[in-house]
Amino acid sequence: MLDQVRARCRVRHLSIRTERAYVGWIRRFILANAKRHPREMDGAEVTAFLTVLATRDRVAAGTQNQALAALLFLYREVLGVDLPWMEAVVRAKRPRRVPVVLAVKEVERLLRAMEGRPALLAGLLYGTGMRLMEALRLRIKDVDFLQRQIVVRDGKGGKDRHVPLPERLTHGLRDEIARALHLHDADLRLGHGAVWLPAALTRKYPNAARERGWQYVFPAQRLSRDPRDGAVRRHHLDESVLQRVVRTARLRAGILKPASCHTLRHSFATHLLESGQDIRTIQALLGHKDLSTTQIYTHVLNRGGLGVRSPLDRLPLA
Description:
Family: Belongs to the 'phage' integrase family.
Shape: globular
Keywords: DNA integration, DNA recombination, DNA-binding
InterPro entries: CB (IPR044068), DNA_brk_join_enz (IPR011010), Integrase-like_cat_sf (IPR013762), Integrase_catalytic (IPR002104), Integrase_integron-type (IPR011946), Integrase_recombinase_N (IPR010998), Integrase_SAM-like_N (IPR004107), Tyrosine_recombinase_XerCD (IPR050090)
Strand content: under 5%
Structural class: mainly alpha
Helix content: 40-55%
Pfam family, one: Phage_int_SAM_4
Protein name: Integron integrase
């Protein structure tokens, strides 16, 4: 049945991350119910499973909702069961927190604490507002040095968008692309060199996977076997590489905020707002579907509060 889940995920063109997450939650649900078949269970078991996650395991609301999404996918998409209890299962309410944002000087200290490829990637996250995986999946053909822009393909929600190419990163990106093409040429000589492409593109353009423009800007050091089809390819750099470097750089820079790679995206949006950029433009650059998602950064700025003098400072204390 788990193979059926994987197959359905691929028919729906879900990412490999989503596929692995769904398979993991479905396996966990079945094991938690003494390996009973999901057809023998209903809303009572689903609710009990989610309750244990929330009360005993104390998972975050987003994690609980991901588990629910996996089970709904199982019943609706794989088993073809659409029962009334599905709509009755209550999703966990995610807390709306203000994102962590670094000050401009803190961003400068963080970037100075890195070097090489990680520094270039971190600069790209802050300079363009891209998500970490969007930067790692960047293809050579989507870096436009003449127009000074980057095309973000298939971002969150399956949308494309344009972001500015920071002039300061031009030299580093050219060097990185030259390195990627050198690796690609070496792979071709060894009989490899075909990068992963979505199935539809592979069928429509059979030779595209070996073309230079489709290669990743930030390729991995080694070839690896694709879990989806078993092909040996050079994937993009793993996200954990940059995450570790950013964590180390944050400590080295003496930054106490719990900053991560995604914090650079938050800082990009906030600093644009501080410089007077309109929020609709920022929404487009970030790829937000709903303006309310972008408006969280107006709360980070808290312009009204910054103009208020604390009553404590009015007291004539010695």
